[in-house]
Amino acid sequence: MSGPADPWAGWPGAALARGLAETWPGLQLEVVQTSPSTNQALASQAQAAWRDGQTEVPPCLLVARRQTAGRGRLGRQWVSGLDDSLTFSLRWQPRRADWSGLSLAVGLAVAEALDPEGGQLGLKWPNDLWRVDGPGQGRKLGGILIEGLGTGARRTAVLGIGLNLRPPQVDWPVASVSEWRADLASPPDVLDALLPGLVRTLQAFDAGGWSAMSSRYAARDLLRGHPVITTHPDCPQGIADGIGDDGCLWVRDGARRVAIVGGEVSVRPVPGRSEGARC
């Protein structure tokens, strides 16, 4: 008796392959059964190419059906079972020198692709996607990890994205794509829905930066208006007050408005004071 059909057989389809070839010439696509970390795999490929004397490395999208040692922000682990999650990374050499807001742009692209009408997916600064359960409330659907490597002409971004497709077996509330997108029945279906918009967003970011997208992010900002606590020494808590044109999180503490920069804080709703999403 034959086993279940491989959902990745024949991926990408002709229409997607043709569209990507037109919008992003040279983009390589690869699917592997298992990878410790797709971000690390793409970084290692680039570093090997540089040791061989290459300056430019081709853009590459690497999908792992199972990821065993994925990393989230601040070194947190992301482990996925076979096809339970969509875990992939994209290696890219932007022309733009200023990458401020890149993780926000990627999150926005994913949210708009999976929830084009709005109301289902919100964004939690700096790199999380949440299923919206009510005003300021939700459960984490996925996350984004942006890593940079190389300098000068070799400067390269590796964009890692992980999304729950089916409810994971964990002891805390999380969301999955299957809750509201029954039409996206397999990981390739979800990736097909994501890729065109993600490519367009990255190209727009490369051309114009983050500020041109900030108003769209504001419509999905889960933190704005809610009390938060931070690890910033000058602003341990306050009210989230939107995202700056450089991608910072503004936090208002009385009369002061403090810019929080990604990578230096962990933002949480204040226990007992907020209806905001709990992390």
UniProtKB/TrEMBL annotation:
Annotated EC: 6.3.4.15
Keyword Nucleotide-binding: no
Record-level GO cellular component terms: cytoplasm
Pfam families according to UniProt: BPL_LplA_LipB
Domain BPL/LPL catalytic: 26-206
Presence of the UniProt keyword Ligase in the record: yes
InterPro entries listed in its UniProt record: aa-tRNA-synth_II/BPL/LPL, Biotin_CoA_COase_ligase, BPL_LPL_catalytic
Leading EC class: ligase
Keyword set, alphabetical order: Ligase
GO-annotated molecular function: biotin--[biotin carboxyl-carrier protein] ligase activity
Protein name: Biotin--[acetyl-CoA-carboxylase] ligase
